[in-house]
Amino acid sequence: MTTPKLDILISTYGEEGLARIADHKHPRMEGVRYIVAAQGLPENYLLPDRLKESDFKVVESPGKGLSRNRNFSLSLAEAPLAMIADDDLDFEPRYFNAIFKAYNDNPAADAIFFTYESADYPKNYPSHSYDFSDGIPKGYFVTSFEITFRTQKIKGNYRFDEKFGIGSRFPSGEEDLFVDSLRRGGLTLRFESAPIARHDGSTTSDRVMNSPSFIRTRGAVIRRIHPKTWVLRMFPHALRHVKANSSACSVRGFLSYLRYWLEGGFDKF
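Given the sequence above, the corresponding structure tokens read:
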């Protein structure tokens, strides 16, 4: 293929992950390349036919853990633009065109966060595009495969914290810390109200958001992002948790949330 303009950085694990990628939609489009960083591959793994084509680059990734894999995929990015992706996404050319248009329209933006489409678990987004310097709407959070950036601004300068993410000590929160590191680094960040992927079914966060490990992780993440106020922030989080889970005893649920949050916040990481 010609020199890529956009690298889609897909993290996966094992042969089943490679098969999952092949089962989803990855349209051929001029200037778009799919880079697959795969952990846990057997010695004689089978590569699906679609992944053998010229717009795919499959590389075995060392070690384990999603954040470590994401960092490895970042090291492979060469195109001017890159996108963080998972192995269960569907793409369309219009998604890639939205990325190109956003960067053309916003030449000062170093990283742009978009939306994704889902038939099963639609996510609530701000109703308009905005620059992060104008303030972040309350309740908004970034999902990993909504993240795009100018490669030269990120590669070699920013990394995912490998203590966070699937397969690590804290099983989520890596995208929150990554975005926070970009913000603290003084990069120009923007949200665009346009989809760049489709993800049907629940995300990992949707499935585990009420688990003790997830709550501990939230405590650890908020402590990192808000080191002076993280304890105070746990109370409104706990109240929202109890309200969203009305089947549980409210007092018991509130106290359990506080306990797990504090365990994560005081963990030595």
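The chain is about 35% helix and 20% strand. Try to locate this feature in the token string yourself.
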